[in-house]
Design a protein that fits this description.
By secondary structure, the chain is of the alpha/beta class. It is built from 8 helices and 12 strands. Strands 2-1-3-4-5 form a 5-stranded parallel sheet, with helices on both faces. A 4-stranded antiparallel sheet has the order 6-7-8-9, covered by helices on one side. A 3-stranded antiparallel sheet has the order 10-12-11. Strand 8 and strand 9 form a beta hairpin. Helix 3 runs parallel beside helix 4. It is elongated, with a radius of gyration of 18 Å.
Length: about 230
């Protein structure tokens, strides 16, 4: 049973999310500020932490910084709707993913499961290879789904779970068009509604990150009014 730490100063979120995770079979610990969480983590680390960014005593950014000094355990940030700067900083500091408030608890559960699967793979646990777990090599691109790793021209690229899933869906069938609806199905639970602009925003960020490894990256093509496709270079 994986232990999940929830750290948020909103008691309603702590209570409702904890109930959902416990119903899914997780062991859950809750903390309403960063310092209380850090004190507990210094005694025993959980398997994963879900952190709010803005909290009293110690915010999520400071807590993440302290954690990364001693552990690589998965961390998901809960961010407010307009906290794009905080998202970017958090990912650079070592967060594995972020979920925007208000959020679907089903989406959060799926993100937690995806990161725990990646952590199991890194730890060397045997996982059956499927189409979704095969290493993908397309020209300069190499993706390892089990380790959630992406390399372009030999350079590591850090992607969130959502960005990784979108790139994986496109790269699995180069030259074939994926509509926005198809990409929504890949990245989100079918109980979660997102509009076209959400997928467009993810693709925009994905391209931006790939261009940090190669300013000339152009493998993801937009077909206006239709969707996106991956062109193998």
């Amino acid at each position: 049973m994986s232990k999940i730490a929830l750290v948020d100063d909103d008691r309603n979120i702590l209570t409702s999310v904890a109930m959902t995770l416990e119903a899914e079979g997780f062991e859950v610990e809750t903390y309403n500020d960063g310092q209380s969480a850090l004190d507990a983590f210094n005694k025993r680390l959980p398997d994963m932490a879900v952190l709010d960014i803005k909290m009293p005593r110690m915010d999520g950014m400071d807590l993440l910084q302290r954690l990364r000094q001693k552990t690589a355990m998965p961390v998901i940030f809960l961010t407010s709707k307009d906290d794009e700067i905080d998202e970017v900083l958090g990912l650079r500091m070592g967060a594995d993913d972020y979920v925007k408030k208000p959020f679907s608890q089903r989406l959060l559960v799926e993100r937690i499961r995806a990161l725990l699967r990646r952590q199991d793979a890194i730890a060397g646990e045997e996982i059956v290879e499927t189409e979704e777990t095969k290493v993908i090599e397309r020209g300069e691109l190499r993706m390892d789904p089990l380790r959630h790793s992406v390399r372009w021209k030999g350079n590591d690229v850090s992607l969130t779970v959502t960005e990784f899933l979108l790139l994986q869906a496109l790269a699995q069938r180069p030259g074939f068009v994926k509509s926005r609806d198809q990409l929504m199905d890949v990245a989100y639970d079918d109980q979660v509604y997102v509009d076209d602009r959400t997928i467009d925003s993810h693709i925009k960020r994905l391209r931006k990150k790939m261009r940090t490894a190669d300013p000339d990256f152009s493998a993801i093509e937009t077909l206006y009014g239709i969707g996106y496709r991956y062109n193998e270079e």
